[in-house]
Design a protein that fits this description.
By secondary structure, the chain is α+β, with helices and mostly antiparallel strands. The chain has helices at residues 38-42, 104-129; strands at 2-7, 18-24, 29-32, 36-37, 47-54, 57-62, 66-71, 75-81. It has a five-stranded mixed sheet with strand order 4-8-7-6-5. It has a three-stranded antiparallel sheet with strand order 1-2-3, with no helix packed on it. The longest helix is centred in the last third of the chain and has 26 residues, at 104-129. The chain is elongated, with a radius of gyration of 27 Å.
């Protein structure tokens, strides 16, 4: 399924009207999902960003700078306020937090090995040219 969240849209053009719907990519059937929970009670404005968190849970940002979790059945939980309007959400998946580096001795050994390889390649090349 593809999930779409918005607001300020038809049929009411009401700033407190949120749109949340599932779109089946095979056949493009659109199913409206009623919203309940914290976001509904807060009467916040439109959803500006959605990202899949896990299983049936998405994370949503709003035009009011609020941050929510929302299930694929429409149940919302307020997670906190943002210091900006979220226009895109993404996760850092599979990228190590710290890039591994060589130790000082590892770096010295690598430089020596590359120097030796270069020396023998140049020596062989000059021998072949004679």
């Amino acid at each position: 399924m593809i999930y779409h969240g918005s607001g300020n849209g038809p049929p009411f053009n009401d700033p407190n009207f949120q749109i949340f719907e599932a779109i089946n990519p095979q056949g493009l059937v659109i199913t409206p999902i009623p919203i309940s929970g914290d976001i509904f009670n807060a009467s916040c404005g439109e959803l500006t960003a959605l990202v899949h968190q896990s299983n049936n849970v998405l994370l949503a940002g709003t035009i009011d700078g609020e941050f929510y979790s929302i299930t694929t059945s429409g149940e919302t939980v307020f997670l906190g306020d943002m210091d900006h309007i979220t226009k895109g959400l993404a996760f850092n998946c599979g990228i190590p937090e710290q890039i591994p580096t060589l130790s000082e001795w590892g770096l010295i050994t690598t430089v020596i090995a590359l120097g030796l390889v270069s020396f023998f390649v140049l020596r062989r090349r000059s021998a072949l040219q004679k």
